[in-house]
């Protein structure tokens, strides 16, 4: 990136000093660190340098009490909620994939048969058509009569697409080719600068270089080293710890690249090129760029939050963010840009790791439970298909069996509840037609209701106990629950006249977009139900 600076400084040489120091940002940068728990800011704090996370924490507005306000806590609904300022019951993205009862088929949140990807034909095209409402980027484009530019980039299509919204542009990495791609929803062809970036074959060169620890092994005191029973092996069964030799994957299995911290490096590099080539921040209206760092999610899933791989990833990301912020300083001046850093969800500890500490936890084999429940229903109500499909955590009943037999629907849902709730790890099974009558702690009930998009939802939803999750593996981990380890996320605001302040008021992920609206004096996204973080606005306006 260093070698680019002279070129970029030249590109922006025409920007006047007075406009660069304006308190209205020239560029808004969203840094979404996928699967980042709030606690990582503090767990690794003593190892962070002064320029990355610490700069945002110590010199910015730090919302320490920010949570997801919906269930389940997955990528699709997470990104959609950050950028639309509302919950799945309004924005229409209740999961990454779900069973669509209208077409009786499973669908993926950004799949779109009416478009095709450009740069790769491995998968169906991606677009935000299933997102029912506007994003903050859409509102910015509307307000400025299309003058503001909106871009979102990620390793994952869903992260880029749902962040960019309907009128922005999105690029994501195709794991097979190692190239950044987009879809015909956005563009007819890739710009020449993207093609030039891809021609560098960065992914292959990283695979050839491999992954070793950034610092001496003995300094990684906040995580566990190799040999753990609970670490996955995405680089092959014999690759158990550092240094990871990835050379055999170059040109062959490039998608392992996502499981390295260099997935963050390539995004920062691509963002820098994008800023330069698309001339972000050089117009009369603010532009918006979102970088959704996906490697943190891949690494967390595969290795688990207590692994040395995760710690090394955050220490490296800290340096990358520091370098990127210095680059923004050079381009726009310290108050010429606004950064917000957050996450789409947190993550659970590995259940076996917790068990070793005598902490109550466990795996839940939901498919077996559903099969047993279906057997029970057949023996009780007759040999018909009673559960049409199960797409965790949602149960869809087979309406035709209920209509054919005339059996009271409530009698069936009561038996399903009774049957499933007897299994270890299951907290509650809720009937969505009578959810207000269910006995459940109020905030958990609200999160559940917020997560249900009624046009798509099933009939019943399962809630597991804290530290229990559905899994097919004893290694790694996952997320998706409505408890704090999955819902408590960082939220840092920096630049644009913001002064150092620690905040502990209750903030929801859906408050981010309306707060950006307030800073920019533009309308909130059309479905927004979030609230403006007033103390941040007061902070900005303090002399
Ligand atoms: Zn995620």
From TrEMBL:
UniProt-listed PANTHER family: BIS(5'-ADENOSYL)-TRIPHOSPHATASE (PTHR10151:SF120), ECTONUCLEOTIDE PYROPHOSPHATASE/PHOSPHODIESTERASE (PTHR10151)
Alphabetical UniProt keywords: Metal-binding, Phosphoprotein, Signal
Coiled coil regions in record: none
InterPro entries noted in UniProt: Alkaline_phosphatase_core_sf, Alkaline_phosphatase_prok, Phosphodiest/P_Trfase
Superkingdom of origin organism: Bacteria
Species lineage: Bacteria, Pseudomonadati, Bacteroidota, Chitinophagia, Chitinophagales
One Pfam family of this chain: Phosphodiest
Record's protein name: Type I phosphodiesterase/nucleotide pyrophosphatase
Entry's Gene Ontology molecular function annotations: alkaline phosphatase activity; metal ion binding
Organism: Chitinophaga ginsengisoli
